Sequence to fold (448 residues):
Amino acid sequence: MITMTMTTNFQKRRSPALRRLVARIITITGVLLLLPGAVFCGEQPLTLQVAYESALQNNENIQMSRETVNQAELNVDTATSNLYPQLTATGSHVREKELYPTHSPTEYELLTIEANQHIYQLGKVWTGREMAKNHLQGSRLSHERSTRQILFQVSAAYYNVLLGRRSVEIAESALERANKQLERASAQFEVGVLTRNTVLRAEVQVAQAVEQLERARNQYLVAKENLALEMGIRQAPETIEEPENRLFPAKSLEELIETAMQNRRDLKKSRIDTKQADKKVDWEKADFFPKIFLHGEYQRTTEDDLFYDNDENWSASLNLSYPLFTGGKNRAELGEAKSAVRQAKWSHRRMENEIRNEVRRVYLDLQTQRKVLAQNRAQVKAAQRNYQQVTAQFEEGLATAVDQVDAFTALNEAENRLANAHYTHQLNLIKLKLATGTFHKDLILPER
Fold:
């Protein structure tokens, strides 16, 4: 009790962000056994949250995306380096053909140190650095978006496992009903109430139920393999916990679209791409202006005669270069950059429309699925009552074997449709959060 009180007081004194961080650390601790390529161990059932954490740590695509961000960070360093002096040291051992034995040295060592410092070209170097920073920001947004998409794939694989497990349960129940029907048909055949054809029909139904069960088990195992692949582990655990049912959002369609416009990482990256295209125009314009740079050189040698009785020499120069004629290359590159700006703006506009369409489509699908779910639940209840009534009538001789098979098939199909509709609806609720850019904002922290 003392420990619980201290924990509660600690949480009250700390900010919500810190409490979320502590909760995340506790969750990650439960995933320590999920090392890259490891097999999931332990008796604890797998939860969807733990599956997410495992994918963040071990999924290869997420790691490759993270490396892309690292490369973009190094590109900023590369672009920044052009602002500083560039130093080059060269050591040489020279041996020359002796033409004038009394004057020129034929063998000596030479050390040369060169320095070049960029001074001016209409901000071309600074623009390149800003472009590298924009690229880094865009890479981070792309990484966050791709990470969310991968976690959605984890969700899809997770719910496919749950659907596979439910399909196995339905198939097992169907096989149990088929065996009971075969027992009843065989018993009635022995007393002469039914014909041999009815027993054969029941045996066929049992065989079909066995086939359904084998297919369901195979799909269940395949779904677990896919889940393990998305989690970045070798084998998924045997027990998987059913998540709490998600609820339809209370927001209107217009509010959801507005949320997507504010939170979608790919849309933010599209804005940065447009800004990047504008910077590229400035970068290309700089080629029409002079380039000014400072050049310095220091040399030291073992042969004094090389520098007229001196063993060292130095020089410094201020250089200006201007492209007089490039065959239209600079103008073409500038035109290409301006075209890229127009293309980026059209691409951004297209993405906005696609996001609106995606949110509307998922929202309308969810509304339809809610109605379909209600109908499927009603169909299962009706199919169960119908099967019970037909079975009772069959035992009394008031229903045929065909009626019983039809009732059996209707119940089996209704249960499978309900299971598929239920998990599809739950997954699409996650898909709506992905479409609005709010999927796991607390789990996926922006990398800096």
User: Anything to note?
Assistant: The two ends are 40 Å apart (CA to CA). The first strand starts at residue 86 and ends at 95.
